[in-house]
Amino acid sequence: MNFEQLIKNQRTFFNSNQTKNIGFRIQQLKKLKAILKQNEQLLYQAIYTDFKKSEFDTYTTELLLIYSEIDTALKNITNWAAAKKVNTNLLNFPSSNYIIPEPLGVTLVIGAWNYPYQLSLTPAVSAIAAGNTILLKPSELALNASNAIAKIINENFPSDYFTVIEGGVETTTEVLKQKFDKIFFTGSTQTGKIIYQAAAQQLTPVTLELGGKSPCFITKDCNLKQTVKRLAWGKFLNAGQTCIAPDYVLIDETIKDKFLQLLKEFIIKADYSIENNNYVQIINDKHFNRLTNLIDQNKIYFGGKTNKAERHIEPTILTNISFEDPIMQQEIFGPVLPVISYTDIDQAITQVKSMDKPLSCYIFTNNIKIKNKILTQISFGGGCINDTVMHITNHHLPFGGVGASGTGSYHAEAGFKTFSHYKSILDKPFWFEPNFKYPPYSKNKLNWIKKLIAK
Ligand code: NAD
């Protein structure tokens, strides 16, 4: 594909100013929602073929989030896109001062495979709402989902406005040679560095939505039954292939045994079986092999059964884990949960702080002191107190990482901001002109400046 020409066409379309019209943006958002709704069956089938993700999971963790993102944008776009008045300062009196949001231009969105619809189309919604053109590259690992997105978008939108290109590393490497006005990337920290470097060549602004090891603290004064339920749900959703899944547990030594027992009981009762549509496959053989290698057979408390042909790994709990174990050296991104106990919360916090800043952190506690200690002392993207994963579903909360887990954020207004430039304007009338800033300078003028401004 001739990417140079494609991007040139998008730039020409952007320069026609059509995307700056709010009515146009609203029309595109409505159209996107309508065509996704019309094609839901295709979307369900494609993702089921990729990793046996059920209709229930696909609707609740993918389509619902996209629809809600579109609805929120439709409801708020006029307000988000309006110029915002700000106060003037004495030095510039009289003038009006305002900030105008403007679209960045031609944008590139690169998606990850684990939630292939949501991670590709939610940023696209923000890009549309902010008035940009979009080149979208979903992940090649969820191939059928990528095909479905390409079919739906490319059959319904002109390529000089919104288009999907498909392919893997080679395609992305080629595309990244082009100049964009914004790159929005979701994927691993390792690939994030490659994207950042490519963007730097063109001074293109980036948003990087990356991964990492998200800790889950469980203190002795939590409600253990609720904790187990909410933790297990967030961990084994999508078979652990969730960027904000709790990666490992740090639990007070005194409640560890009870916790393990309850967690085991919950997993058995929840029926994490693919046949009953309560679970998904591991995306491919490479990740299946990586995960099975991380399961230390001597440390299995529960689970550990795998099926290579089905790419199935049952929910697995590992105990007697230390921070030196191989499983603590990388993001797990699968249904394996290491449980580490602590006797001193301060030591546990220090340990987490010595690692890369995580995308999420979860704290199960009724102890306000410990909650505040963790919230103040550990830097992380976002998270929940007494729950997991659910912060992603509140569009009032910007979503993103910090440090190695990402830069920038999105969802609702945060997404609109991510795809906008905020132009600051000082707007002055001609009728008043104090002369003290102009040469020739004098002691008297300086005194006036000091009196009026410096205080
Ligand atoms: P990945 O980095 O392998 O791939 C992401 C995208 O980058 C894909 O579209 C892929 O084609 C492309 N890509 C891969 N290698 C590339 C290269 N060398 N040059 C250019 N492009 C390249 O990530 P993944 O396996 O698809 O996703 C899993 C990772 O993404 C995990 O680390 C997870 O935590 C993270 N993730 C983060 C979020 C978030 O919102 N922060 C969401 C989902 C996944």
What's the SSE blueprint?
Layout: H1 3-15, H2 22-38, H3 40-51, H4 55-81, E1 84-86, E2 96-103, E3 106-110, H5 116-129, E4 133-137, H6 143-156, E5 162-164, H7 169-175, E6 182-186, H8 189-201, E7 206-209, E8 215-218, H9 224-236, E9 248-252, H10 256-270, H11 285-294, E10 300-302, E11 306-307, E12 312-313, E13 316-318, E14 336-342, H12 345-353, E15 360-364, H13 368-377, E16 382-385, E17 406-407, H14 412-418, E18 420-427, H15 443-454
Parallel strand pairs: 3-4, 3-6, 4-5, 6-7, 8-9, 8-15, 9-14, 13-14, 15-16
Antiparallel strand pairs: 1-2, 2-18, 7-17, 10-13, 11-12
Helix pairs in contact: 2-4, 3-6, 4-5, 5-14, 9-10
The chain binds nicotinamide-adenine-dinucleotide (NAD).
Structure commentary:
With 455 residues, the chain is an alpha/beta fold. The protein has two domains: 3-210 and 405-422, Aldehyde Dehydrogenase, Chain A, domain 1, CATH 3.40.605; 215-400, Aldehyde Dehydrogenase, Chain A, domain 2, CATH 3.40.309.10. It has 15 helices and 18 strands. The protein has helices at 3-15, 22-38, 40-51, 55-81, 116-129, 143-156, 169-175, 189-201, 224-236, 256-270, 285-294, 345-353, 368-377, 412-418, 443-454; strands at residues 84-86, 96-103, 106-110, 133-137, 162-164, 182-186, 206-209, 215-218, 248-252, 300-302, 306-307, 312-313, 316-318, 336-342, 360-364, 382-385, 406-407, 420-427. The protein is globular, with a radius of gyration of 25 Å. The model has no long low-confidence stretch (mean pLDDT 97). It binds nicotinamide-adenine-dinucleotide. Nicotinamide-adenine-dinucleotide is lined by residues 110-114, 119, 137, 139-141, 168-169, 172-173, 186-188, 191, 194, 209-211, 243, 331, 333, 359, 401, 406.
